[in-house]
UniProtKB/TrEMBL annotation:
InterPro entries on file: Nuclease_put_TT1808, Restrct_endonuc-II-like, Uma2
SUPFAM superfamilies reported for this sequence: Restriction endonuclease-like
Organism ancestry: Bacteria, Bacillati, Actinomycetota, Actinomycetes, Kitasatosporales
Gene3D superfamilies given in the database record: tt1808, chain A
Source superkingdom: Bacteria
Domain Putative restriction endonuclease: 13-176
Name this protein carries in UniProt: Putative restriction endonuclease domain-containing protein
Amino acid sequence: MTAVDERDMTRYFEELEPPEGVKVELLRGVIVMMASPDIVHNMIVADVQDQIPRSRWSRLQTQDVDILNEASEPVPDLVVVARDLLPDSGRLLPSQLVTMVVEVVSKSSVHQDYVVKRSIYAAGKVPAYLILDPIMAQCVLLTRPEGQDEDANYLTQQITKFGDPVLLDVLGLELDTSEFGTFPNVRPHRYP
């Protein structure tokens, strides 16, 4: 048996061809596969994207993000980058170019979105990480990344219930959450 380290897993991940409709991410050397998202999930992403002015920001879905010094290539539900910083092409977007990432929590992604990706995006120095949670009907805005590797974290956390506006200083706008849907009959979780 041959030992596989994180570098080998990264090479394997880059050659992986998942079935259509499956989202695949590399999170700290672990390949994570998820089924296509729920309509509630997709409508929240679309609603957020529509509120971010295209004249100033590139709003990208299914964009792989390269986290410096990490065996991680997360695929946030939405990546926001200043239009003048966006590269002309490439599969991997360097995390240092990203202004904000958005993840919409699904029934199967709670731990990854609240714990694993929180640390990964903070390690990548992404200035703002917005978690939209249709299970708990809340928005969690994380800012001020600090630290490295698995010890990285965001110093500021603001929780807002769906229906109340979320001030996104990093984008210079206020996010209207009044139309965000929720998942019916889903058991609450304990995060953040």
